[in-house]
Design a protein that fits this description.
single chain, 423 residues, mainly alpha, Erythroid Transcription Factor GATA-1, Chain A, Retinoid X Receptor, 2 domains, 3-stranded mixed β-sheet, 14 helices, 9% strand, DNA-binding
Amino acid sequence: MDIPSPSYSSSPPELSLAPSSPSITNCQICEKPGHGNHFGAITCRACAAFFRRFGITNNFNLCRNNKKCGLSKNGLFSCKMCRLKKCKQIGMTTDNFQFQRDSFHSGETEKMLENLERKIPSSMSTFTGRPNLIIYCAPKDEKSDKKLIDVQFLIERASDILIKGSEYPLFASNSLGKLTLGLQNLRKIPDLSKTRYITKIGQEETFQLYQYDVMKVAKWLTYFDEFQKLRHSLKMDMLKGFWIIWSRLEKLATVAAARREGICKENQVMLEIENHQIMVDTNKLEIDLSWCSRYTFEQLKFFGEPEPNRINYMAATMANLQPTDVELTFMLCQLCLHHVGKRYQGEILEVSERLQESLSNDLHDYYANKIKMRKYSDRLASIMKVNNLVRQGILQRRAKVEFMNIFDVFYVEYSDPEMFVDF
């Protein structure tokens, strides 16, 4: 997928702005506030840039819905082909495209571009070869002082993963067994030679964690056969409710195992990002919130207990439990399904309860027939204790964030707020 670089110029040169007047209406493509007349239609900047990019190249996947896709509730298209089709239907034309706008000779132009490329600073994405699926943008409009975090590319990538299905064919006697194999495939044995020690977490590290977690959960769900049978829009809604709480529990299991094996100490946290193990000392960690708040991390402690204290207690509880891979898989499923069922209600609640019942039967089969544990009520109670601790932490965090929003602590907004309700 080609990912456009964010532009910080006040107005792209290829877009002709109509004079500001009350006659400008909403965008004829996405129905968001219009910005002017672009290529023969009243559009917003985003739709104009989209047409400028794809009006001739058509460099995107074919429509999966027989060219009958509509607008989503937030005004965003999930299908580029149908978006371009609408652009052309309302009269947008490529006649005014300017392909050779500079007056330099080709040799001079190439030399100028070469010199320009030398001046472009190396970003994390160019250094690691990892595309930026989360883009930190300017305010959505001139009157707003809120920065926008655009996660649309991230959502599209996760959607593609769910559509394509699992990377590797796995076979098991039931869904819990197959999900366990999928989890083992995604959770690699720590390679201590690749351990990186970091003392500061800022915008880049935060976005990298978001991106890795969403991709990891999406890949794991491709091994859940019953989940894959649901309609795609329902799967995406559930994924948005899954990823944060799933990653909390999965990271907790990683930290607990590392501390139990002596890989990291009590105040250290081990995280996994792609092929690297990240080691963090919570007593020495500097958290830079300047990209999202006017307050420092120390000042925000006013709103509640620092997170590391709770992590240490939860990690100790998980270490004492020492769940098997099957038990950890069940914990992840139960925690996520129960959470999204209560959050969304309606059809998702019905689906979640049905899937939980099926997985509970699989867990009973594991205890009774695989490891011959006839009495496992105490074991289940310990499992639910850990899950309840994670769930309570999410709810407490959500209450803190709502309290912070009252005081306008953060100056960022997400293009899809549903993905960050539980943060």
